[in-house]
Amino acid sequence: MLNKLINPEIQDLLIKKNFAVLKEIVDELELADVAEIVADLPENLRAIFFRILHTNLAADVFEYIEPETQLEIIKSLSNAEAAKILNEMSPDDRTSFLEELPSSVTKKLIGLLNTEEREIALSLLAYPEYSVGRLLTTDFIAVTQDMTIAAAFDYIRKYGNDSETVNVIYVVNEQDILIDDIKIRTLIFANPNQKIEEILDKNYISLNVYDDQEKAIEYFKKYDRVALPVTDSAGVLLGMVTIDDVFDIAEEEATEDIHRFGGTEAIEEPYLNISLKRMIQKRAIWLSVLFLGELLTASVMAYFEEEISKAVVLALFVPLIISSGGNSGSQAATLVIRAMALHEISIKNWFFVLKREIMSGIILGSILGILGFLRVFIWGKYLGVYGEYWMLIGFTVSFALIGVVTWGTLMGGMLPILLKKIGLDPATSSAPFVATLVDVVGIIIYFSFAFFLLKGTLL
Amino acid sequence: MLNKLINPEIQDLLIKKNFAVLKEIVDELELADVAEIVADLPENLRAIFFRILHTNLAADVFEYIEPETQLEIIKSLSNAEAAKILNEMSPDDRTSFLEELPSSVTKKLIGLLNTEEREIALSLLAYPEYSVGRLLTTDFIAVTQDMTIAAAFDYIRKYGNDSETVNVIYVVNEQDILIDDIKIRTLIFANPNQKIEEILDKNYISLNVYDDQEKAIEYFKKYDRVALPVTDSAGVLLGMVTIDDVFDIAEEEATEDIHRFGGTEAIEEPYLNISLKRMIQKRAIWLSVLFLGELLTASVMAYFEEEISKAVVLALFVPLIISSGGNSGSQAATLVIRAMALHEISIKNWFFVLKREIMSGIILGSILGILGFLRVFIWGKYLGVYGEYWMLIGFTVSFALIGVVTWGTLMGGMLPILLKKIGLDPATSSAPFVATLVDVVGIIIYFSFAFFLLKGTLL
What we know:
Chain A is mainly alpha-helical. The first copy, chain A, contains 21 helices and six strands. In chain A, the strands form two sheets. In chain A, strands 1-2-3 form a three-stranded mixed beta sheet. Chain A has a three-stranded mixed beta sheet with strand order 4-5-6.
């Protein structure tokens, strides 16, 4: 809000080249707010803005900007200026910027880095996507056991400046193997003449650099840490992951799932930034797949064409019945998928889910069945819209509802577990996906009941 | 995993009353892991387990346990034992435990607290639900400007033990009004003889105790803090909120939204813990509401009964058409709702969304329209299932699809914004909700096209 307000003023100062005042204002602001202002600036002013910031401040601000905008800025700067910023960036934020770019651009930018930073950048980008390695920052502090607390503090003062956080200090042995982590509080409370080894509890939580980022999320939630050390399989300390990055990842994952739930490919770009073309692409794929599935309903309906022509009244309830199955199915799918995402249930709970969803299905189906019967009863008995056999129709509709809803909950509950079992993402069995499956079978269930109940009367 | 493995051993030690060994094992474990073990213990052993832990360790472990289990444990302990734990708990975790309980139980437990803690507990529970106040911990460290850095450190060593974190220190004036926050790193790097006031930048982010918890989430994500100070409207520092609690809240909110997306009341309890009865209640409400909405489809279909009886073939495509509308609608709703939750778009962007979704609808509808026509073309021309007028039917289906899909995206896109505008939760316009709305209108659109295109031939 505030940012939007002062933005014109900032632009004005930039155009008037009143950089002194501009710097004062910027110093008053949070990095995140400066980043927002930059994002709202017209492209031509962005470059000027970054030129007047001190390199390290420029880099700090740069880290808070969206990848697309980051790229525009880098392009608008000279190679020398871009190099300064890229070299100053913290390794993890640099990775998340570089990994978003087309590989040609990434190569070019890595070329701008100095030898040391280039090595770091390349090693981090070498880790698989969605692995902890991609979140790694190599700016951390590690001390050795033989140091005294006082010496450790001197060390922190000397090298802690670049470290992303000093809230946790790591202890390694001669082979750089992680031995323990120490909260800064423990150091502060300890006697300065004590040796580090005297305050170790040798009891720490660490991540492997190849772990899935989901594990990082799980650990941060469970163990309430602000940073976790990351090692290779030999236990060598490679760096750390900080909670702010994991927080962002967790949100992205939730968004991905939510999008899949809505029956669309996960879309990373903000709604306002993504191009219509890209959005159509993301949405058309799933919509078409679902459509091809739904085409089966036309075939199934055609199969019952004779029944329908004999008793058109049956057609009237088709939308009601299939949508009820679809809704109950998406409920079940949503609950089970989310429960799996939160590690509340796993594949081995399949039987519990099976029982639970069948029971729910029968009960929920009966509730809708009664509502459905009441509707046919009232319209049929008092408005006479369903002819003489309204009661039979009523029973057909209610029984069909019980059957369809039970089928829906069963599908919705089991499909995510099945997908997980065969190694696919459970979230793929989204509400629309389940609904489509349920529609086809739903029609069959409905007309089968009709066939048995109305044979000799309407059929 | 590990926990499950050593659980039998723990039980064995408890039964054998081999508490010495037990304590050793517990000291080796993370609090969160001990909590998991406790949760898996049979009720009768839980109390024993807590009795052998030192009070403060017991309280720390207790904070990691689920509310339901927490209550069982408290009930199984003597009042004196329960009081010890409740008095030791950190205020924020105690609030989130107490607020879950029936008020009678809450009263009883608050009665066990000592005067000081009782005052804290009552004041925190007095803040509105979902307000920052409910996340507040009063265990923080505040220093004054006139202190030297060295004095500040002494102060931290003296009073920092209870503080939930020492990563950030707060600076207040004589009226306890918040002046600034200082990262512990800044203190460490500063010269011990400097005064606090010399290292202040007077530039901090704080929350108001009555702010919505959503704001806390937004701030932590945006400003990358591990803790934020909380003040009253006069600026008096009341306490702080730590990122671990906000992380949990963020996840709960995502779960709530996801559940609503699936067309069910938000369910807090884990899938495995919630009773069938409660789950049915949560699900039946929405399912019935949606069902009552879907009943309209039966009326609309009845309205077109004559057309259907004349051209039964029309009925065959009803499921296909309404489900396509439903799917496109849930896509749009999902994207817009999530974008609003992430503050990517707000009400004022309604016109952009309107244009975007209409365009998407027309394009996506055309894609499905073509697929639909192809289907009718092949089945009609080569299998002859749709009679002599198959081409007209094909056009009817395609145009209906364009119309229905556009209507679906429009509904899905605008409804969340509308709900927000009138002060309701956008997530209420979940996929099934939109689908239901679209179904009814979809049938009308379809039969209207049929009416105009097939008049004089099939109709």
